[in-house]
Amino acid sequence: MPEINSYTVNFGPQHPAAHGVLRLVLEMEGEVVRRADPHIGLLHRATEKLAETKPYNQSIGYMDRLDYVSMMCNEHAYVLAIEKLLGITPPERAQYIRVMFDEITRILNHLLWIGAHGLDVGAMTVFLYAFKEREELMDCYEAVSGARMHATYYRPGGVYRDLPKQMPKYRSSEYRKDKDVERMNAAREGSMLDFIEAFCDGFGSTIDEIETLLTDNRIWKQRLVDVAVVSPERALQLGFTGPMLRGSGVEWDLRRKQPYEVYDRMDFEVPVGSNGDCYDRYLVRMEELRQSVRIIRQCIDWLRRNDGPVMLSDHKVVPPSREEMKDDMESLIHHFKLFTEGYCTPAGEVYAAVEAPKGEFGAYIVSDGANKPYRLKLRAPGFAHMAAMDEMVKGHMLADVVTVMGTMDIVFGEVDR
Amino acid sequence: MPFSANQLLEHVQAALGEKIARAELAYGEVEIEVAPDDLYAAMQTLRDSEMLAFDQLLDIAGVDYAAYGQDEWITDEASNTGFSRGVDGFTTGRLGLTGIYGVQSIESSTGRRFAAVYHLLSVKRNHRLRVRCYAADDDMPMLDSIVPLWSSANWQEREAFDLYGIIFDGHPDLRRILTDYGFVGHPFRKDFPLIGNVEVRYDERRGRVVYEPVSIEPRVLVPRVIRDDNRYADPAAEGAKDA
User: Please, where in chain B does CATH 3.30.460.80 lie?
Assistant: First the structure.
């Protein structure tokens, strides 16, 4: 009787290391993966088709739910595309706020990534450190938009409202003693910018702590170094963007190469790897955390010194304020039309992309002049990365599949859309 | 120093020549259209040309033009009665053009219904290009696969096939990707209703999952409106209409 060596393993769709819902069919030969066939689409919600049936502004909230750990960056690409179509530019202050929140989002995303990646590979503590910091940034989301995750904060023409002058505070209750409340509110005495600055001051040492735990850790290096090496040529061929491309040694960052908003005024470095393995991609993302803090500091500095509107006053696109609406007939009409019908865009096609934490997130809109997009196509970075799964894990051990999934920073909200 | 949009267009025209069916520069973006027969050769030129060097294929977007320019609300003239300007309920936004509620026939000029739009990026030279290709046959849209040129086309073509039914000739593994196992139809086509055709539930009695026709009512909260906004009107086109 012949000895059968090869067999098939079903990885997921419910597996803690599958980062959501991925069914991975692995053809194994002993413990070595010969072929990986990812079955995606278990989280497919047809966002693009839904957007075709709704006025432009009503789809912004769907963007948050695509890559649900880098919410505002998704909104950003979609809103940029609409603005390009309408030919409008948001006020400068709104642009700085967007850049600041893009970077806050990048930190949020990378913290979740390092937490989950660490957990997958066997480092539990990092997860707890990372999530402690995430909490503060989520509070910033909540302070500006009222929602901790799905903010719908960016709108065509600016951002929904200005940064709060007073950071919301905790209140004492029967479950929370006054002394605790005082401690928790220590950084919340001032404005939101003060709060973010205090976060930036403390965050550098958090990155150091995480790096102390991982960077020279023997187990971490054994699991990451020389795993899933991608050459720069292959990375381009496979459509990699973001840290996945930079980890392979290609210096490409949209914030630098095709700057949008006020990124051209920001001073920051673009980290680039050299070996193209999981360890390099880890180092690239860790350095991006530090650079994000640097950009946030520059934004805080500018926002402190400059006041101004955060939304255009063009009421063909942007709704008038509640007060205006009650006083002024014209504003009432604008308000009514915007909320019952929305605005029509000129016929045409645009593509706008941002450097989301995971790579290039783009929105392609085909408009036929209606108040709804005729076709919306979202370019999700994770989709291209997931497609390279087979190539990256071939010849590796089963345990490395988890490492590769972690290094890709996969979120199924955007892969399946 | 990256090319300006005009320079890029000139370089693309110089490289492809006759193969360009239409070229357009709008919103600072360059878009060209190629015939399906020229698609593969044109893409190869774009990738390998020294001046253009499109080393990345970022995305392939399928588009269904069956309902392009159709709206649900008469905006040009007021009605005699003052009300009921809403176009009747059986429109694309609500029910889909055909399918189980099928009412309208699909009227689009032959060979212009399905298109694939390729988004190219040159990391080397820092520029972007959009390439559009209409499939010749509406009933069986078929285009050449460009997987040999860019590996990233693999899943993107699978997605366009799954959602729009565009067949990519020469694709190594053209399977559905986003929809369920055993799914029928191509859900992003304009004649596929938003609410779908079937719904799934677990049948206690039979002890298995069953598929049934959808039971929910489709509804539209905001009708689709196209307004001729003079702010966006093209002065040249206006002049031509008057003449």
Answer: 1-65+112-193
